[in-house]
Amino acid sequence: MCSPSPGKKRMNTDVIKLMESNHEVTVLGASNELMVKFFGPAESGIWKVRVDLPERYPFKSPSIDLTNIFESFLPQLLAYPNPTDPLNSDAASLFMFKPSEYVLKVKGERLFS
Fold first, then answer.
1. Which domain of life is it from (predicted)?
2. Residue 18 to residue 58: CA distance in whole angstroms
3. Which of 5, 12, 23, 99 measures 20 to 30 Å from 82, CA to CA?
4. DSSP letters along the chain, please?
């Protein structure tokens, strides 16, 4: 039986550290596919991030998918939102014209028309 490669050892170490953190981590199928839940900047917002660690990790960066985030200013614009130049025009429109509906949407609550 051969021992894991240094890259696989590093991947396992990093996954264990992530699982010991304050985030909820679920392993999806293979050990290199993860779903991570963390608290977003909006009050009581929970974001889900799908992480796929490639075979060449850490020499090749992981793929990240922000699965349930309704936000017009992601990723680098969260700290300095500018609703007049949005990445997501639907979210920006709610933010500017229906702020209470925007807050509900960001929190993941259903909107009833």
1. Eukaryota
2. 15
3. 23
4. -PPPPHHHHHHHHHHHHHHTSSSEEEE-SSTTEEEEEEE-SSTT-EEEEEEE--TTTTTSPPEEEE-S---SSTTTTSSS--TTS-SSHHHHHHHHH-HHHHHHHHHTPPP--
Q: What is the pTM of this model?
A: 0.56
Provide the sign of the torsion angle of the four alpha carbons 8, 10, 16, 21, taken in this order.
negative
Q: Which CATH class is domain 1-68?
A: alpha beta
Q: Which of 8, 16, 15 is nearest to 59 (CA)?
A: 8
Angle between the 89-97 and 99-107 helix axes, to the nearest 10 degrees? 130
Q: Which residues pair with 36 in a beta bridge?
A: 25, 49
Task: Report the alpha-carbon distance of residue 34 to residue 57 in Å, rounded.
Answer: 14
